[in-house]
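Feature request disguised as a bug: please show the residue count (264) next to pyridoxal kinase in the output. Example input:
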Amino acid sequence: MGDQGRIYVNEDVVPAYKALVPHADLILPNQFEAELLSGIKITSAENLVDAVTVIHRTYNVPHVIVTSVQLPGPPSSSASSVISLSTADNSSVSQDARPDNMLAVFGSTMRSDRSARLFKVEVPRLDCFFSGTGDMFGALMVGRLREAVFNDSPALRETASWVSPDNVAMTDLPLAKATEKVLASMHTVLEKTMIARNEELARYQNEDENNDAEFAHLPEEERKAALEKRARLRASKAAEIRLVRNVEHVRHPVVKFKVREWNQ
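Example output, currently without the count:
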């Protein structure tokens, strides 16, 4: 529906989206979308819990993952997580664990009273725009949640919407285990994509230095606009996710970022 404080669709379409939510077992809103669904501005740990609880109780949706959450607060001492990428040069990707360079994912499988059962995973932020990460995250979550449920007790497979009993800890929820694997795959694939992107853009730069005659015949303003457009298109193409060449990291992720209970 939207992100970063603005709606991508017509406002009169939002009620139609909300009407679909009760038919889902799993939703993956970003922070802004979670605010739209709950009617609560998420500015603290307390109202994050409130927002997820409202979503559970209003829409009766059992599994919720809220992505790209940024909350003010003191530095965290834990390693982190979700579409995890930090600034990279052409040869390596460095990770800076300062709070402002982290993204967080919060998940919850509701209890029998529809209260939230929250867990949290953090990841380093990557200074790059990627197209299609939401689709990739959603597709992997569906598969990994099913895998985690079928690795759990046989009784859970027969339970409506795969909702674990109330005595199951946040970190032991199938949704939590699925999130760890998905973020492991996302982190590695996007990290490798970013390195490949930087290498590709560096090759373009070298080619342009040797042959920049393509737009030489244009007036200065048109030439400048053409060069800027070419740079944008190249950057977008170079940032396409290298999924196929890194498929082994999707099939066999190495979990680096662990979930932890969120009781604040």
